[in-house]
Every structure is written in C-alpha cells, then in structure tokens.
Amino acid sequence: MNRKELNPDASPQAAYGARLRSLREARGWTQEDLGTRTDYSSVHISAVETGRKPPTLRFSRSADRAFGLTGSADSFEREYRQIRHGNLLEGAPEYIKHEGRAAEIRLYEIGIVPGLLQTPEYARVLADSAVRRGSITPEQAEERVSSLAQRQADLERGRIPSILVVMDESCIRRQVGGPKVMKAQLDRLVEFAELPNTVLQVAPFGMGERRPFNLPLYLLTMPDLSVIAYSESQLRGHLERETAAVLPLLAGYHQLQADALPQAASVAVIKEA
Predict the structure, then answer these.
(1) Arch. (CATH architecture) of 90-116+157-272
(2) Which CATH architecture has domain 12-85?
(3) Beta strands, E only, the chain
(4) Higher pLDDT, 98 or 272
(5) Taking residues 247-261, what's their average pLDDT?
C-alpha cells in the first residue's frame, strides 16, 4: 500500500484530512470501514485525507456521526466552517471566533436586520438574492444560512452574553421577502427585545446628520473587559484591537444609543411597521 505522508501545517484543508486519518486509524478502521459508516467510497475518503478533495458540509456531518462528534467543540462540521470562513471578508473569521466568547455584544446595522437577529426565512431570502445576482454560488448561500444559524445557536449555549442592538430605521422599513417573511422577522425583533439580556433600539431617520456611523459596526467586550471592534465595507472587513482606535468608536456608539429611540418606543415603531 502506498501511504502518503500528510503535513497538517500545509493548509486548513490538510489539517482536516490529517485529523480524519488520525481518528480513523486510532479506531483501527480502514478507509473502506469509514466509507461504510459515512456512505462515501474509500476513494473519496482517501481524497479528503490527502487534501485532493475539499470536505463538504454533508461529508463533515457524516464524519461527525461516525466518530460521535456531532455538536462537540471538536466536530468536523465546526472545522469545516472554519475552513469556509476563509471565503469571508478579511477580519470576519477572527471576529466570529471572538463573538462566541464575548461577555457583551454591541451591534449597529444599516439596511438589513443584524444577522444574529435574523429568522431563517429572512436569511434565506438574502442569500438566494445574492445567488441570483451572481455574487455567490448556491453552495455558498447554503453555507451562509447554515453558518448564521450556528452563530445564533452558539450564543445560546453556556454563559449568555448581553446583546445591545441599534438598528437604523431602514432595517425595519426595507421589505425583504414580502409581507409574510417581513412580519415574522419583525415579530422576532419584538421577542428579542423582551429577553432579559438584550436591549433593542431603532435609530430613526430623523436623527439625520447626528448619526455617528455610516457603516455597520460591531463591538465585543471580552471577559477580560478588552473591547474589539469590527466593521465592514462592501469589499473588506476590518478587525480593530488597539485601544486608541476602539475608544472613539465606543464613544460614538454610546452617543448613538443616547440619540436613538428608547426600547419601548422602538418596539412600538417595529409593531407599527
């Protein structure tokens, strides 16, 4: 048998394949054995292990079932998502990693409901629209929706962070997916506002030039009280850790909260919409 030596440091995909082989051999399974347990051929297993074929979400979930890793921190699905994050804007993968550990999350969004508050149907409409425009592939759309659902689920496990959200009024006025999808999304926002660990505010159009930000902004307060900022343009994302750069953003967010509608008034506006 020709056994190809693997270098897990060569790439995330190579590390995935090397771990797959290591776990398989630790159980004394051949590639045929694992293929039987995952409904894939031994040739496919070999190709993933040696990095000749990239893993897919379906394959990763099948491997997790075979190895008993479903839902665990060491799951192949989680590793696959980390690999897929390589297609995200610069800074986004690291932001997502920190988001799951944050003690407090502050969000400001323009135009669309923040991802962490989106219903599956709303998220699906946005993803499918991007496919029709040719911006992403159907597979990337599926991954986008699935990854968002995973991020939402991660925040409900263990120590639940405080989540403070300010949405530009355009988020609730812009119709996405038609009345049925939009009504369910707005109902979800009202439910979110009722949670004990959340604050939801609407920044009305009437704020005009007093609105301090013209792009979405995300601020994470970590358990050690350090603050991380993340923002995106159309083409790139930027993660900022330096205190001198983050503090003005934090001050701007506080001003945004002061000028935005209080939560009760915000919920009233959402219900009216």
Answers:
(1) 2-Layer Sandwich (3.30)
(2) Orthogonal Bundle (1.10)
(3) 104-109, 162-168, 198-203, 217-221, 227-232, 237-240
(4) 272
(5) 96
